[in-house]
Amino acid sequence: MLFIGDCHCKFKTYLYILFNMQHKGGRKGVDCSLQVGDMGIGFPPDSKFQKNNTTWFPPIDNNHKFIRGNHDDPAQCQLHSNYIGDWGYLPDPNLFFVSGGYSIDHNYRIIDTNFWADEELEESVMDEVLNSYKMCKPKIVITHECPLGIKIDFVTNSWKFDINSRTEKLLQSMFEIHQPEYWIFGHHHRKKELDKNGTHFVCLNELIYGKISDCIYEIPNLIWESCDKSVSELDKDKL
């Protein structure tokens, strides 16, 4: 399974990674993937990828999924067949995911255009997330932001020190309860790996500026429990 960093509407690059990128040994594309949020779903329309006057990309094979970040319209994400959900646990591949994040620059954005008031999960939902995490104790955690305690190791934008988001606090509480083998996230737009308390943290760069190799991370032999092999609505050979 391949994990992919912030997309920020760079859907052509995202789809290239999924279907056309060459790997060692001649393999083309990837069998399954999970993108870690900030797809750009719901932003003002892109000239190529749009639907109902907002940015959108067509549904693709269900073995390629994404969570949402702070730069995604939560309502639009819920309508997309490749959106994995706001949070949840998948017993196979033993993976826990949490969507959402905080926009430190929201005062400079336009509500319901490039900022959404419900970008973070509600506190009552976060309580459910934490209770579920206590029970699951997963091997892999996928989030958009990272736990508060490791934020200092990954921040590239000093503004992000001004406020500790409730999402970061939730993730920190999760990490204190259980340390998974992997914790993969984006948001801070850099490729960096760090081991702490038995967890291998991986921050992925964004597709806008980063080299593709800095925007992806693979856990070999990891697949979804059930992969839908339906034909994509996209003509992959023309990407």
Structure description:
This protein has 239 residues and is of the alpha/beta class. The chain has a single domain, classed as Purple Acid Phosphatase, chain A, domain 2. 17% of the residues lie in helices and 18% in strands. The protein contains 4 helices and 12 strands; from the N terminus they run βαββββαββαβαββββ. The chain has helices at 11-19, 74-78, 123-136, 166-177; strands at residues 2-4, 33-35, 50-51, 54-55, 64-66, 87-90, 95-98, 140-143, 182-185, 192-196, 199-203, 216-218. The strands form 3 sheets. It has a 6-stranded mixed sheet with strand order 6-7-8-9-11-10, with helices on one face. Helix 4 links the parallel strand 8 (140-143) and strand 9 (182-185). Helix 3 runs parallel beside helix 4 (166-177). The model is unreliable at 227-239 (pLDDT under 50).
Quick take:
This protein is an alpha/beta fold. The chain has 4 helices and 12 strands.
| Intertermini distance | 21 Å
Instruction: Kindly provide the name of the CATH class.
Output: Alpha Beta
Helix content: 10-25%
- What CATH calls the topology is Purple Acid Phosphatase, chain A, domain 2
Q: Based on DSSP secondary structure assignment, what is the total number of beta strands?
A: 12
Radius of gyration over C-alpha positions, nearest whole angstrom: 17 Å
Protein structure class: alpha/beta
What strand line-up does the widest sheet have?
6-7-8-9-11-10
> What's the oligomerization state?
single chain
